[in-house]
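hey can u check if this looks right to u? its 168 residues, i copy pasted from the old doc so theres a chance i mangled smth
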Amino acid sequence: MRHRKKVRKLGVTSSHRRAMLANLVTSLLEHGQIKTTTTKAKALKIWTDRLVALAKRGDLHSRRLVATTVRNKVVLRKLFDEIVPKLEGNSGGSCRIIHLGHRLGDGASVSLVRLLTYTEEKKEKKKTKAKKTAKKKAPEAKASKKKEEAPETETEERADEERSEEKE
């Protein structure tokens, strides 16, 4: 019986487990979501919640404690500057586990671990993409009207596009 055994051993040594979970946390914070086995996802959720709680304190000591796990400076800066402000209202639970099913090769249960801020990031990206496509469509509409005066080579076409972007 596994009474009073809190640590998920994951079938590896303690040093391997610590390194593996530190790498998983770093990848999760960097990309916003990752796909892994369900048992690793459950262990990862505990580590992520602990690091986000430390980061919410925001002082130098907590930054150094988080830096012992998240060794990538860019990801560490992203955690403190972008992720934590979005999670300020939440009292706990910074990530979500979504079960995807079983892996074909070995039948392991696979899950998607997603930060709660990931959906907001995705919406912001969609908004900026929509604005960019709207800007691209406007010159295309002008270009369709001027099809009669179409340039003969690709370099002339690129030069025309650059000129139209500079005007806007």
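The beta strands are 33-37, 95-102, 109-115.
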